[in-house]
Write a structure and sequence with these properties.
There is one protein chain. The protein is of the alpha+beta class. Helix content is about 50%, strand content about 20%. The chain has 31 helices and 28 strands. Strands 5, 6, 7, 8, 9, 10 and 11 form a seven-stranded antiparallel sheet that branches. This is Copper-exporting P-type ATPase. It is a multi-pass membrane protein. Its EC number is 7.2.2.8. InterPro entries: ATPase_P-typ_cyto_dom_N, ATPase_P-typ_P_site, ATPase_P-typ_TM_dom_sf, ATPase_P-typ_transduc_dom_A_sf, ATPase_P-type_domA, HAD-like_sf, HAD_sf, Heavy-metal-associated_CS.
């Protein structure tokens, strides 16, 4: 199967969209057709062995529309990139909008004198003498005809498109307008003939009758008002793609590359993989690549959401559309053109915005038969009034009113405009939704399943407790020795100990010998002593009894979900260091928001039951499933679905792929990697679990908006068509003129577009961080997904951690000169264990540190010194 995108021209309403879809879907070998009225595009999945591009194009052209492949084989460099295609689409839309505006202004300029001639005398306005009185009725009629014809010529597109649609047996909204205004014009010409007959035969009564039954102004007013509506609608639709415009603006237009030893400035689209790109302060990075030389601080907020510039040096990856704030460097281009991170984001947003949501299917089905049904109702209306004896003019007026008041556009626009605005708004929050179906499905979710490692937690072990047990052994001395012993190990837990010692600026003596024992621990010789480091079982195997106090500490730390490491020298226990994968800063807030949204939260982890319970208790999650392998995660999701739940799975997009695929919606947390983008329905670019809650809130807002649009579209047509047909004439004497009908029709489409545009003002209703998650309601139910050794639902969780500390300290730091320095100090302080957050103000030279554990002033000041700056004071608030 092959999937190809085509540009389609000539579509003006939902009926056109339905006609093109129906036509192509009938072709042999076509598996799926997705036509977008907003983007004037069509995506076709077909068997290229049974069908060709030319056959698809020919089928579309046969029913009166134009089509061509969206990606021609040849062209200028960059012309066939997504950016080039987008620019062509925008230029075409701008051209059409300008032409429509010119047509509208010209029509209005002619319509004003036409209405004056037609209605002036009835309104008591002064009218030229040669247009007054029955004796001049034919002159007035001819004047109206000559003013009407230019307006109809200016808006001839309604006739060419509408009548062609009728001829090809695929009528559209233009067909309704063409038939309605054309019938008014023809009746006006007929009335002129009757007036001429009256003058010729001396029948002034006949002249008087038809002089007041001219419909020239109705014919001109219908096409002009529809054009007004189309123009306002096109302007509204243009605003739906504002998010894509902003994303496009992020990419620089040019790049400086080194070729043949010389720097050249070329269009960014012409950068090739392997090119050496030069970046100076303040410049945007045009493509993805790897830094070869130099150093800089890159603002990646637009892509990853990181608030501070990130230091980049040789070997580091840089992303397109990020900005180099300070420093200069050269990097080797690796992903260029449509393969860059920004291009992938833009393509996903565009595809999601133009794809079909399931909620749109009913509207599409109705749009496909809407126009023929309305034409049948109009004909039936005219026949009924004729049979009731109300005359041809009355019957014709009612029939025309039915034609021009009905609006398939309101039905067709109800869903896609809201979807396009919604996916664009999601992109502004760093949420990439891959399809409209995923955006719609999110609002159904009632259960969120969270992977622990890398989703709820940071995914990087860190030291949480340091407990020296040997008499007279200070904490810093114990940590220095432990880190020196672990320095030769590549195990993540050992690395956490080493990083903690380095962050405190402690010396790391060189060991004389080192041996790693897989799955147990390490042996080392240091300063003449024989050291052992590892778990309790390893020390016991080596003939060392940890003792009752150490065993009690081991059990306590394990119960808190931490991994205790024991250290001994010459057969005597030195102490314990606990390491744990800590919760992300925003995990508590995210879980709280899930509860506020009415979702059940389930945590999956491969850890043991004790660790799972400790982490879920800390996060405020009511159910945890432990000892789960990647394949079993999929089984957990499946069992939840079998219980009738709609499951949102949030994971890292790599190890959780089976569960992400099984879930009703899979959501990957990742900073825009290819694997993350490919493996889930939704990608959270900012690496924040909070954005999962934002995505659900946005989905609910979009669906509410779509339902409002659909209600209005159905309500308008169900109410408007009977009124136009004269349903209120007999009981109340109310009859709708064709002019009012066309005005109402134009207004309905504009209302739908404007209502959808309200989504642009969507605000993230994120709950404030309270520091603790809400206590879940007690439950006595069995686990939703029992597995071997799985944790049962956790009841009556208490999220208060014993010994929890909240403290603020302010340091005065000298030596900071620029944003580069500010970022260095902030990074140094944030890396100190026990620091919850750090904020540095360059102007006041103050660093404010929020602590989650007791950290000595000297430790904070040493961290600043290690970064190369001079801390002069540290005060506790």
């Amino acid at each position: 199967m092959k999937t190809e995108k085509f540009q389609v021209t000539g579509m003006t309403c939902a009926a056109c969209q339905a006609n093109v879809t129906k036509c192509v879907a009938k072709l042999p070998g076509v598996e799926q057709v997705d036509v977008s009225l907003l983007a004037n595009s069509m995506t076709v999945t077909y068997d290229d062995g049974a069908l060709s591009e030319d056959a698809i194009v020919g089928a579309v052209e046969d029913i009166g529309y134009g089509a061509e492949p969206a990606s021609p084989a040849a062209g200028k460099p960059g012309e066939n990139s997504f950016r080039g295609q987008w620019q062509k689409r925008q230029e075409l839309a701008d051209r059409e909008q300008r032409a429509m505006k010119t047509r509208l202004i010209a029509s209005l300029c002619i319509l004003v004198p036409l209405m004056y001639v037609a209605m002036g005398a009835m309104l008591g306005l002064p009218v030229p003498f040669f247009l007054k009185g029955e004796e001049n009725a034919l002159i007035s009629a001819m004047t109206q005809l000559f003013l009407t014809l230019p307006i109809l010529f200016l808006n001839r597109k309604f006739y060419t498109s509408g009548l062609r649609g009728l001829w090809k047996r695929s009528p559209n909204m233009d067909s309704l307008v063409a038939v309605g205004s054309g019938a008014s014009l023809l009746y006006g010409v007929f009335a002129m003939y009757r007036m001429a007959w009256g003058f010729g035969h001396g029948d002034l009564g006949l002249v008087h009758q038809y002089a007041h039954d001219l419909y020239f102004e109705s014919s001109a007013m219908i096409v002009t008002l529809v054009t007004v509506g189309k123009y306002l609608e096109s302007r509204s639709k243009a605003k739906t793609s504002s998010a894509l415009d902003k994303l496009m603006d992020l990419a620089p237009k040019t790049a400086t590359v080194v070729r043949n030893g010389q720097e050249e400035t070329i269009p960014a689209e012409q950068v090739r993989a392997g090119d050496l790109v030069v970046i100076r302060p303040g410049e945007s990075i045009p493509v993805d690549g790897e830094v070869i030389s130099g150093q800089g601080f890159v603002d990646q907020a637009a892509i990853t959401g990181e608030s501070l510039p990130v230091e980049k040096g040789p070997g580091d990856q840089v992303l397109s559309a990020t900005i180099n704030k300070n420093g200069s460097f050269q990097f080797r281009a690796s992903k260029v053109g449509d393969d860059t991170t920004l291009a992938q984001i833009i393509r996903l947003v565009d595809e999601a915005g133009t794809s079909k949501a399931p909620i749109a299917r009913l509207a599409d089905k109705i749009s496909g038969v809407f126009v023929p049904v309305v034409m049948g109702i109009a004909l039936l209306t005219a026949i009924v009034w004729l049979l009731l004896g109300y005359g041809f003019e009355f019957a014709l007026s009612c029939g025309i009113a039915v034609l021009v008041i009905s609006c398939p556009c309101a039905l067709g626009l109800a869903t896609p405009v809201a979807i396009m605005v919604g996916t664009g708004k999601a992109a502004e929050y760093g949420i990439l939704v891959k399809s409209a179906e995923s955006l719609e499905n999110l609002h159904h979710m009632d259960t969120v399943v969270l992977d622990k490692t890398g989703t709820l937690t940071s995914g990087h072990p860190a030291v949480t407790d340091i407990l020296p047990l040997a008499p007279g052994l200070r904490e810093e001395e114990f940590l220095s020795q432990a880190a020196a012993v672990e320095l030769g190990s590549e195990h993540p837990l050992a690395q956490a100990v080493v990083e903690r010692a380095k962050s405190q600026g402690l010396p790391l003596p060189q060991v004389d010998s080192f041996q790693a024992v897989a799955g147990r621990g390490v042996r080392a010789q240091l300063a003449g002593g024989a050291y052992l480091a590892g778990n309790a079982a390893f020390l016991t195997e080596q003939g060392l009894d940890p003792g009752a106090e150490a065993q009690a500490q081991v059990q306590r730390l394990a119960a808190e979900g931490k991994t205790p490491l024991l250290f001994a020298r010459d057969g005597k226990l030195l102490g314990l260091i606990a390491v744990a994968d800590t919760l992300r800063e925003d995990s508590l807030q995210a879980v709280e928001r899930f509860h506020q949204l009415g979702l059940k939260v389930v945590m999956l982890t491969g850890d043991n039951q004790v660790t799972a319970q400790a982490v879920s208790r800390q996060a405020g999650i009511e159910e945890a499933v432990s000892d789960v392998l990647p394949a079993q995660k999929e089984a957990v999701v499946r069992r939840l679905q079998e219980q009738g739940r709609k499951v949102l799975m949030v994971g890292d997009g790599i190890n959780d792929a089976p569960a992400l695929t099984r879930a009703d919606v899979g959501m990957a947390i990742g900073a825009g990697t290819d694997i993350a983008i490919e493996s889930a329905d939704v990608v959270l670019m900012k690496n924040s679990l909070n954005d999962a809650a934002t995505a659900i809130e946005l989905s609910r807002a979009v669906i509410r908006n779509i339902r409002m649009n659909l209600f209005w579209a159905f309500f308008y047509n169900i109410l408007g068509i009977p009124i136009a047909a004269g349903a209120l004439f007999l009981p109340l004497g109310i009859k709708l003129s064709p002019m009012l009908g066309s005005a109402a029709m134009s207004l309905s489409s504009v209302c739908v577009c404007l209502n959808a545009l309200r989504l642009r003002f969507f605000q993230d209703k994120g709950a404030p961080v309270t520091g603790t998650a809400p206590k879940p309601a007690p439950t006595n139910q069995e686990p939703a997904c029992p597995l071997p050794a799985a944790a049962a639902p956790i009841e009556d969780l208490d999220t208060t951690t014993e010994g929890e500390i909240a403290m603020t300290k302010v340091l005065t730091v000298e030596g900071m000169m620029c944003a580069h320095c500010q970022a260095h100090v902030q990074k140094a302080l944030a890396g100190v264990p026990g620091v919850a957050s750090a904020a540095v103000d360059l102007d006041s030279k103050k660093a404010t540190v929020e602590l989650s554990a007791d950290v000595a002033d000297s430790v904070l000041m040493d961290a600043v010194k290690e970064a190369g700056y001079d801390p002069t004071s540290c005060a506790t608030l």
